[in-house]
Specification:
The complex is a heterotrimer.
Chain A lengths: L4 H11 L9 H12 L4 H10 L4 H8 L13 E6 L2 H5 L2 H12 L5 E2 L5 E6 L11 E3 L2 E3 L4 H16 L1
Parallel strand pairs in A: 1-3
Antiparallel strand pairs in A: 1-4, 2-3, 4-5
Helix pairs in contact in A: 3-4
Chain B lengths: L2 E6 L2 E6 L4 H7 L23 E4 L6 E2 L10 E3 L3 H16 L15 H9 L16 E2 L4 E3 L9 H9 L5 E4 L6 E4 L12 H5 L5 E3 L12 E6 L8 E9 L2 E8 L13 H5 L14 E4 L2 E4 L2 H19 L4 E4 L6 H14 L5 E2 L6 H8 L9 H6 L2 E5 L3 H4 L1 H14 L2 E6 L11 E4 L5 H8 L16 H12 L4 E5 L5 H10 L5 E4 L6 H6 L6 E2 L3 E2 L21 H9 L5 E5 L3 H4 L11 E6 L11 E4 L8 E4 L4 E5 L11 H11 L4 H4 L21 H11 L11 H11 L7 H5 L4 E2 L27 H5 L2 H5 L19
Parallel strand pairs in B: 1-5, 16-17, 16-25, 18-19, 18-21, 19-20, 21-22, 25-26, 26-27
Antiparallel strand pairs in B: 1-2, 3-4, 3-5, 6-7, 7-10, 8-9, 11-12, 12-13, 14-15, 14-27, 23-24, 28-29, 29-30
Helix pairs in contact in B: 2-3, 7-19, 8-19, 8-22, 9-15, 13-15
Chain C lengths: L24 H6 L4 H9 L1 H10 L12 H6 L10 E6 L9 H7 L1 H15 L3 E6 L4 H17 L14 E6 L9 H8 L23 E5 H13 L1 H7 L7 E8 L5 E6 L2 E2 H7 L9 E5 L8 E2 L6 E2 L1 H6 L8 E6 L4 H15 L5 H21 L2 H14 L7 H15 L1 H6 L18 H4 L8 H4 L2
Parallel strand pairs in C: 1-2, 1-4, 2-3, 5-11
Antiparallel strand pairs in C: 5-6, 7-10, 8-9, 8-11
Helix pairs in contact in C: 2-6, 2-9, 3-6, 3-10, 5-6, 6-9, 9-10, 13-14, 13-16, 14-15, 14-16, 15-16
The chains are: A alpha+beta, B alpha/beta, C alpha/beta.
Bound molecules: flavin mononucleotide, iron/sulfur cluster and FE2/S2 (inorganic) cluster.
Flavin mononucleotide binds next to strand 4 and helix 16 of chain C.
Chain lengths: 160, 788, 452
């Protein structure tokens, strides 16, 4: 399996960081997922081969980390934190609002494949709660209006 | 190591430094419960069942990970400890389905036992349990996640113990589960160790599940009848119909030479017993077709034709082929039958290793053979040729475990990077078929080096390898059929300083067949024919000339000079690709379990009992002698021992001279009675005596034959008591095997692997169903039909 | 990205360069950057450790272990390489301070790592950031590259003859990986399962070598201690609790934010620093050290915020996350939300943690939605108490401690939920509005199928 040049460069660079090959596993999986969209069987197999691991060993690791997913998901992964600090500031309302707006629930995708919704644990935005991450981008001090703006701008970006 | 003193529950105890607290407690009979701790596997500290109080420590500590320290004061019996254990059980039962009534492990479940002990019997749970349907991972492995307590024993025994690493742990938290390597199924060695080690009923056996309840079985410990390693196995038998049916194979008490280990064959491949093609009635050829007949008719015909042949053309016109799967007693009796009753030395068997050359090379050296146990403790092991992972699974386990737990140094010489090279300290890759040269080189012959060079093997490497080996004290040297004759002898003579040897044969009693003298030129114990007299008065009549070997017998058949051929538990026609017409004029009698290619040619076919259906003894390839105990029954068949004796009797031979009657009457009637559990016959004998009847003694008593073997066969004079208590006893090789320095060209390795076992394998459903049987094994030679 | 706040009571040490553009290495150098490292190179290992010991710097990751002492446990001689790890996994609910350090002052972390390296004679450091912090990984990677380019990292740093390599590593979503030994497993490419201790990381850590692991804030303080002196740093705080701390004041307050306040700052005053309770409501409770610590009731908040004082009050300072809870909050719901987190994040290795958190979550879901029975209340406490101190790693305690305190201190609220009564404490208490419940429904769905 061939990854983009950029990713190949990153993988090569990663290998120089550690005394053992396997150490690159977690970052490689995450970066490969960013590129491929999910950790496909092919990705598992490829990375296993590169690191001299069995597919099983890689799967054991993949399934441990909650950011890694083995099935394709919507293009924009909307991750709403509902943990304590966010909850105290109305995160549930925000989550509920998005649910209704997108018509999907936790770990579900919109039919057009644009959005994936997840309720996640604390994302380190407690002092700017409630907060969510769309893919890797933080959106903080959320209100329902602000959420609408975010969703709208993402939709717009797609239609352009 | 220095000893350390500690106190446990007020009792002082001393144990070597480095001992784990849980083991120290066990040594004085204080049980600390555990799920995840398993001796010999890596430490987990995961189940938290072993929490104990240690003075000066604020929290409870896990006894399974704590190394004892001088002066440590431990409490295992306090209320706090008891409560902790109880709570752990409550926790683990939270998601446990509590389907004990239908669980295979019910009655043998560590979770049940502990719940019983710690009284976590009243449930505080109101909520639903997480559920997941049972999964089938292979024909023999089923997994029921809700029952799993995540002790990780299976993962470790598969990885650390078997070096297969087919099980993993996936997800996390309450959703963690044990997962197979191929997504939804397993691809592995199918050893079933994971099932055996599972403390609950999470992993269950496809062969056994839902068949019976553990308490409905009797447990008979006997010896596996497949490969030559001789694992002790416990067969679970249940009364069914008119006899006992074998429903399970495992190694319950782990007391044998194999400890924890059994491979797929030992654990599951007893199923051929119930194969519909199993012969259950004698067959006699009438008008060209084999037709069912009574035992009387068949045996009388055999006796008649044998007597005719002997009396008209003499023993030289008769041949006997023995088996590497029948017991020592049967083999001993068979050659005795040939030599005394038929008066011929025309006896042979399927040879899979050059045992005569081996014994010859060792003559004069006591204690030079290694037992299977030695492989587990030797500081260093040299393995030349063979691929034990597939051909000698127990041996491979012993080597791996020794390397892993005791840091043994393994040296491998092979033409292929076999799996055991992963454990090897040094690996010498040589050209295919150059094992004999390697042996010669290691024995000091520098001229052999040329034949060993490969891109990976340089002269320096060769020299370095030999030098390292020469520095090894108490080395165990293991080789297979690749080494024969002179090279074998040279190697055996070369190594010194406490080296011990193992010569690898292929089937359960290959070594026994050789030891018991199934050779045309050797008597039991590899004695020359000239020494026949030492076996007793009647032996004086044994011909002094060597008889025909198998090849010669076939040749004689072609020339119509072989009048009869008596084949016991062997399939030479398939094994040696014998032209069926060669035996067209020969009266062939076959004793076997199935209608083999050889049986198909026979005039008379006699249905025999397999080794799980009779008593006796087997000698594994290392020379470890063990007793077989009768476990199952098959209606209509007879043990070979009985058949041989009956034929002799019908031929008018004084069977007192053939099969010694045991005057003590001990364990009388072993082979004959059906449905008899060990011990029952003794009770019968006692009852008889009480009633004033003569105790029934039987000429079919294998123990009487064993006693004779012990008396007359060199090396077999070993402790009875040890044997009777179910232990393995190492025999010595005290024979002489005269003149056996030439390579034995009749050796034909059977190339069995984990999923084949000659004829038996062909009729084992389990062995044929596992997918691995269809995948080509890494370095498998072209597949031959394994017969025998 | 994240907004900065300020308050006159703040004493800025680690946050000194926040908002000053110090991600740029030249700017950083202009703000006394890398002076501490150069000084440390001349001081030698023992002097560094003594200075850090004198500063009374205690670990900012949660346990508050004295940093200097931890470093001194590393054996001087080791056949295996030694390592320095910066723990930037920051996943404790309520905690968002390391994020600011990485965002605004990445080089201070690098300096901390190098200095710790010099102190224990290590030549390799790793900075481990949680996977969600992708933009911070980019910032850190750039900072590391810049430092390499200047010769501050790599061979012969600052021409001193000392070599030091450093790399940034990303996680991929797992709270437990913040636990030090689990972090090492993760860095070795494995599942984040903690290790058996002893041996402790200082003796056998990453790749089997002696390892120092510290929280990012702990390490970011080190350059300031080296430059300002241990005594100066210690004097900023209270006895045995040196320096200042980044307090993450979040929850029901008007001006939540990360404020750097001296150790021992009064909790009540702290709530005022954060603008007081919002929406005119009253204070109900505070979790003074992240979601893992026992809660304090409003009455218990007149207390200096340092490790020892909080310990005495039956709670802990933890990661410096102060979660302020107003009186509109249902404490049963709060307990449920906390437990949902621990259930989700438990690594699953040991029985009490794996099963305990799952059981507690199930009970609390049912309880909060009106299906509770009286014996549940005792059972919640029973389960938590039986986890406490008996799990494989401190995660179990982290799940048990807040739960026990919530049942003990707010038992009445639990009682008020009995007999199918609707939640009396919140306006949005209807079940369909609780994502906690809709996350997955065990009854209808196969939870294992949902796992990934
Ligand atoms: C479950 C658990 C999670 C933890 N998460 C973090 C974390 O996210 N960040 C952190 O710095 N320390 C975390 N810790 C504490 C670390 O184990 C370790 O004590 C800390 O990194 C040591 O650094 P310090 O002495 O500088 O605090 C966690 C501990 C536990 C038990
Ligand atoms: S399957 Fe059995 S042995 Fe394996 S982890 Fe589960 S309970 Fe333990
Ligand atoms: S036996 Fe000690 S924790 Fe399992």
């Amino acid at each position: 399996m061939q990854f983009s040049d950029q990713l190949e460069k990153r993988f090569a660079e990663l290998q120089t960081h550690y005394p053992i090959k396997r150490s690159a596993l977690v970052p490689m999986l995450l970066y490969a997922q960013d590129e491929v969209g999910h950790v496909s069987d092919e990705v598992v197999h490829e990375i296993a081969a590169r690191l001299d691991l069995t597919d099983l060993e890689v799967r054991n690791v993949v399934s441990y980390y909650s950011m890694l997913h083995t099935k394709p998901i919507g293009k924009y992964n909307i991750q709403v934190c509902t943990n304590i600090s966010c909850m105290l500031r109305g995160a549930e309302k925000v989550f509920d609002h998005i649910r209704q707006r997108l018509g999907i629930g936790h770990k579900q995708d919109t039919p057009d494949g644009l959005f994936h919704l997840e309720e996640v644990e604390c994302i380190g935005a407690c002092c700017w709660a409630p907060a969510m991450q769309v893919n890797y981008t933080y959106h903080e001090n959320l209100t329902t209006e602000k959420v609408d703006e975010v969703l709208e701008s993402l939709r717009k970006k797609e239609t352009q | 190591m220095a000893d350390v003193n500690i106190t446990v529950d007020g009792r002082k105890l001393t144990a070597p430094a480095g001992t784990l607290l849980i083991e120290a407690c066990k040594s004085v009979g204080i049980e600390v419960p555990s799920f995840c701790y398993y001796p010999g596997l890596s430490l987990q500290g995961a189940c938290r069942m072993c929490l104990v109080e240690i003075a000066k420590m604020p929290k409870l500590q896990t006894a399974c990970t704590t190394v004892i320290q001088e002066g440590m004061a431990v409490t295992t019996a306090s209320d706090t400890v008891h409560q902790a254990r109880k709570a752990m059980l409550e926790f683990v039962l939270q998601n446990h389905p509590l389907d004990c009534p239908v669980c295979d492990a019910g009655g043998e479940c560590e979770l049940q036992d502990m719940t019983f002990s710690y009284g976590a019997s009243e449930s505080k749970l109101i909520d639903f349990k997480n559920h997941k349907d049972e999964e089938q991972w292979s024909p023999v492995v089923f997994f029921d996640r809700p029952r799993c307590i995540l002790c990780y024993r299976c993962v470790r025994v598969c990885g650390e113990g078997m070096d297969v690493w087919a099980l993993g742990i996936q997800n996390r938290g309450a959703l963690s589960l044990i997962a197979p390597n191929q997504d939804d199924h397993l691809e592995c060695e199918e050893c079933g160790m994971c099932i055996d080690i599972c403390p609950v009923g999470a992993l269950t056996s496809g062969a056994y599940r839902y068949k019976t309840r553990p308490w409905e079985m009797n447990h008979v410990s006997t010896v596996c009848l497949h490969c030559a390693d001789g694992c002790k196995t416990t067969l679970g038998v249940r009364r069914q119909g008119s006899g006992n049916q074998i429903v399970r194979g495992d190694n319950r008490d782990k007391s044998g030479i194999n400890g924890d280990f059994l491979c797929i064959k030992g654990r599951y491949a007893f199923d051929f017993i119930e194969h519909p093609d199993r012969l259950k009635q004698p067959l006699v050829r009438k008008n060209g077709t084999l037709t069912p007949a009574s035992w009387e008719e068949a045996l009388e015909l055999v006796a008649l034709r044998f007597r005719e042949a002997r009396d008209t053309d003499g023993g030289a016109s008769m041949g006997v082929i023995g088996s590497s799967r029948t017991t020592n007693e049967e083999n001993y009796l068979l050659q005795k039958f040939a030599r005394l009753v038929l008066r011929t030395n025309n006896i042979d068997h399927h040879r899979t290793a050059d045992f005569p050359a081996f014994v010859n090379a060792l003559s004069g050296r006591a204690h030079a053979t290694a037992s299977m146990r030695d492989v587990l403790s030797a500081p260093a092991v040299l393995l030349i040729g063979n691929d034990p992972t597939y051909q000698h699974p127990l041996l491979a386990w012993q080597i791996r475990t020794n390397v892993r737990l005791h840091g043994a140094r393994l040296y491998v010489v092979n033409s292929w990077p076999i799996k055991l090279t992963r454990q090897a300290k040094e690996f010498l890759q040589i050209p295919e078929g150059a094992e004999d040269k390697a042996a010669a080189f290691l024995a000091g012959d520098d001229s052999a080096a040329d034949a060993l060079l490969t891109s990976k093997t340089t002269r320096e490497k060769l020299a370095g390898f030999r030098e390292k080996l020469q520095g090894e004290q108490n080395l165990v040297v293991i080789f297979g059929s690749e080494l024969r004759g002179q090279e074998l002898a040279a190697l055996v003579r070369a190594a010194a300083r406490g080296a011990k040897y193992i010569c690898l044969g292929d089937h359960a009693n290959s070594r026994g067949a050789a030891d018991m003298g199934l050779y045309p030129d050797l008597l039991p114990g590899y004695l020359p024919l000239s020494e026949a007299a030492r076996f007793g008065e009647p032996w004086k009549s044994v011909p002094q000339q060597p008889g025909m070997d198998l090849e010669a017998m076939v040749a004689a058949g072609k020339e119509r000079k072989l009048r009869t051929l008596y084949v016991v538990g062997s399939n030479p026609v398939a094994r040696y690709a014998i032209d069926p017409f060669a035996l067209a004029e020969t009266f062939v009698v076959v004793e076997d379990l199935f209608l083999t290619e050889t049986a198909d040619l026979a005039e008379v076919v006699l249905p025999a009992a397999c080794a799980y259906e009779k008593s006796g003894s087997f000698t594994n390839t290392c020379g470890d002698l063990q007793l077989l105990r009768k476990a199952g029954d098959c209606e209509g068949v007879k043990p070979d021992l009985e058949i041989i004796v009956r034929i002799a009797e019908l031929m008018g031979f004084d069977i007192q001279q053939l099969a010694p009657l045991d005057p003590s009457g001990m364990r009388a009637d072993f082979g004959e009675s059906r449905g008899v559990q060990s011990g029952e016959v003794d009770q019968q004998a006692i009852w008889n005596r009480r009633q004033g009847y003569e105790p029934r003694v039987s000429p079919f008593n294998p123990f009487a034959v064993l006693k004779e073997i012990q008396r007359v066969v060199p090396g077999y004079n070993v402790g009875q008591l040890e044997l009777l208590s179910g232990n393995d006893v190492h025999t010595a090789t005290a024979g002489r095997a005269p003149g056996k320095t030439e390579a034995d060209r009749f050796i034909l390795p059977s190339h069995e692997n984990l999923f084949t076992s000659g004829t038996l394998g062909r009729y084992s459903d389990v062995l044929n169903r596992v997918i691995e049987a269809r995948l080509r094994l890494p370095n498998e030679k072209e597949k031959e039909i394994a017969a025998d | 990205m994240a907004d900065l706040v300020s308050h006159p009571d703040e004493v800025r040490v680690v946050s000194k360069r926040f908002g000053e553009g110090a991600t740029d290495i030249d700017r950083y150098l202009a703000l006394d950057g890398y002076k501490a490292t150069q000084k440390a190179l001349t001081m030698g290992a023992d002097a560094i450790i003594n200075e850090v010991k004198a500063s009374n710097l205690r670990g900012r990751g949660g346990a508050g272990f004295p940093a200097g002492m931890k470093w001194s446990f590393v054996p001087k001689q080791s056949p295996k390489p030694k390592y320095v790890l910066c723990n930037g996994d920051e996943s404790e609910p309520g905690t968002c301070k390391d994020r600011l350090i990485f965002e605004h002052d990445p080089h201070s972390v690098i300096e901390g790592v190098i200095i710790a390296g010099i102190a224990v004679d290590s030549h390799q450091g790793y900075i481990y950031l949680r996977g969600e912090y992708r933009y911070l990984i980019e910032i850190m990677e750039k900072a590391v590259a810049d430092a390499y380019a200047r010769g501050f990292l790599g061979k012969n740093i600052f021409g001193s003859g000392y070599d030091f390599e450093c790399a940034v590593q990303t996680g991929a979503g797992a709270y437990e990986v913040g636990e030090e030994s689990a972090l090492m497993e993760s860095l070795e490419g494995k599942r984040g399962i903690p290790r058996i201790r002893p041996p402790f990381p200082a003796v056998v850590g990453l790749y089997g070598g002696p390892t120092v692991i510290n929280n990012a804030e702990t390490l970011a303080n080190v350059p300031h201690i080296i430059l300002g002196g241990g005594e100066w740093y210690a004097s900023l705080g209270t006895p045995k609790n040196g320096g200042t701390r980044l307090f993450c004041l979040s929850g029901s307050v008007n001006k939540p934010g990360v404020y750097e306040l001296p150790m021992g700052y009064n909790l009540r005053k702290m709530i005022e620093v954060a603008g007081g309770i919002w929406n005119g409501r009253k204070l109900k409770a505070v979790q003074p050290g992240g979601s893992s610590v026992p809660v304090l009731t409003a009455d218990e908040t007149d207390i200096p915020m340092d490790f020892d004082a909080l310990m005495k009050a039956g709670s802990m300072l933890g990661s410096g996350a102060v979660v302020i809870i107003d009186d509109s909050t249902c404490m049963v719901k709060y307990a449920l939300r906390v437990m949902k987190f621990y259930q989700h994040e438990s690594c699953g290795w040991c029985i009490p943690c794996r099963e305990g958190t799952d059981w507690l979550k199930k009970t609390l879901i049912r309880f909060h939605s009106g299906g509770g029975v009286r014996r549940d209340i005792d059972n919640i406490q029973y389960l938590a108490e039986n986890m406490l101190g008996r799990t494989f790693c401190p995660f179990g305690d982290a799940a048990a401690m807040p739960t026990i305190s919530l049942v003990k201190k707010f038992r009445q609220e639990f009682e008020d939920h009995l007999e199918g009564k609707p939640c009396p404490y919140e306006d949005h208490g209807k079940i369909e509005h609780l994502p906690v419940l809709t996350a997955w429904d065990h009854r209808t769905a196969d939870p294992w199928a949902q796992a990934h």
